[in-house]
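Sat 14:20. Reprocessing the chain from the morning session after the first attempt stalled halfway. Input below, unchanged.
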Amino acid sequence: MTALIEETYKDQGNQSIILICHSMGCPVMLHYLNHQTQVWKDKHIFSFVTLAAPWGGAVKALKAFTSGDNLGVIVVPALTIRKDERTFPSLAYLMPSDKFWDPSEVLMTNGNKSYTTANYHELFADIDYDVGYQMWLDNRNLTYDLVHPGVDIHCIHGIGVDTMETLEYKQDKFPNHTPKIGFGDGDSTVNTRSLAGCLRWEDDKNGKKFNYMNLTGVDHMSVMTDARILKYLLQLGSQ
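Finished this time. Tokens:
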């Protein structure tokens, strides 16, 4: 990534670049920027544009670990891909964070048992997949504190689209059946509270600019093709 940025910088006549990310690519790029020197960032990065970033994770990741998620491909039964999805460390990275969901807030139920951000160990034990818990331990702190990236930020995401917020499983069939899903606000994939996590940088006193935009009805994927956002990016590029 460093080589690509430096090459692009040189190819454009030593002009700093606009770094654009989508979805999980945004916390990954935050981790990357947090490990670069400020001198390097000031030289090479004009601005950091984040589209539909899950800054605090997403409830959807819980369902994928528990009973699988077909990611909208309705002809694929969720349970058939659960075995593969459980091997993704990136999925553990997207587990809801206790900095966004209070440890007392119930995200999932299994009969008389409830799961929150405080008892993930129990959840993985109950679905007989302790490896998932170890993956979560491995990467939960990568961007847990949401340290400012040290560059100008343009945070953009959709809102007003039904998004998975709670999961209710029948105890006698857990976790091998489709849960009853409770919906809340978000972009169809990421919950609004997570999408808006960038607002924690709004008043950061480091001299960097912060711009925020949310668009009603824009879902997780169409944020990359919405004409209003493309216009915004073109205007940013012309500055």
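The two ends are 24 Å apart (CA to CA).
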